[in-house]
């Protein structure tokens, strides 16, 4: 359940190439499973700039409220509008329709420093 073609953070976000040099960001299956039923998502505005490791927003579930962290530094160029009316997409399709934002990375090579699928799998199996 860990897609091989994505990059991951230790905080359970994933990153995938998107259009025009941007990257889609979401939370992993492991994260959504730990959170339980997601009922609300707070995301930044398009045009916001974030630094790697900074808060990108929050996900609220029936169990808790959790921060979402930016995997790379950059500018938010898109926010998933579907999540406003259907935050449960994070549970049902975390790697597809449940993406959170698209970031235009300040330094696209920073993605190389993130975990690959094997390293993320190791991290989640140790948890």
TrEMBL record:
<dbReference type="Pfam" id="PF01597">
    <property type="entry name" value="GCV_H"/>
</dbReference>
<comment type="function">
    <text>The glycine cleavage system catalyzes the degradation of glycine. The H protein shuttles the methylamine group of glycine from the P protein to the T protein.</text>
</comment>
<feature type="modified residue" description="N6-lipoyllysine">
    <location>
        <position position="63"/>
    </location>
</feature>
<comment type="similarity">
    <text>Belongs to the GcvH family.</text>
</comment>
<dbReference type="InterPro" id="IPR017453">
    <property type="entry name" value="GCV_H_sub"/>
</dbReference>
<comment type="subunit">
    <text>The glycine cleavage system is composed of four proteins: P, T, L and H.</text>
</comment>
<dbReference type="InterPro" id="IPR003016">
    <property type="entry name" value="2-oxoA_DH_lipoyl-BS"/>
</dbReference>
<protein>
    <recommendedName>
        <fullName>Glycine cleavage system H protein</fullName>
    </recommendedName>
</protein>
<dbReference type="InterPro" id="IPR002930">
    <property type="entry name" value="GCV_H"/>
</dbReference>
<feature type="domain" description="Lipoyl-binding">
    <location>
        <begin position="22"/>
        <end position="104"/>
    </location>
</feature>
<dbReference type="InterPro" id="IPR000089">
    <property type="entry name" value="Biotin_lipoyl"/>
</dbReference>
<dbReference type="InterPro" id="IPR011053">
    <property type="entry name" value="Single_hybrid_motif"/>
</dbReference>
<dbReference type="InterPro" id="IPR033753">
    <property type="entry name" value="GCV_H/Fam206"/>
</dbReference>
<keyword id="KW-0450">Lipoyl</keyword>
């Amino acid at each position: 359940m860990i897609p091989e073609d994505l990059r991951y953070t230790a905080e359970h976000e994933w990153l995938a190439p998107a259009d025009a040099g941007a990257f889609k960001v979401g939370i992993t299956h492991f994260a959504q499973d730990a959170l339980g039923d997601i009922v609300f998502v707070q995301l930044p505005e398009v045009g916001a700039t974030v630094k790697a490791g900074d808060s990108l927003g929050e996900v609220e579930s029936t169990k808790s409220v959790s921060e979402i962290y930016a995997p790379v530094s950059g500018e938010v160029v898109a926010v998933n509008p579907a999540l406003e009316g259907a935050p449960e997409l994070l549970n049902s399709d975390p790697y597809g329709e449940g993406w959170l934002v698209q970031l235009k990375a300040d330094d696209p090579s920073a993605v190389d420093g993130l975990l690959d699928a094997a390293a993320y799998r190791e991290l989640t199996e140790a948890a």
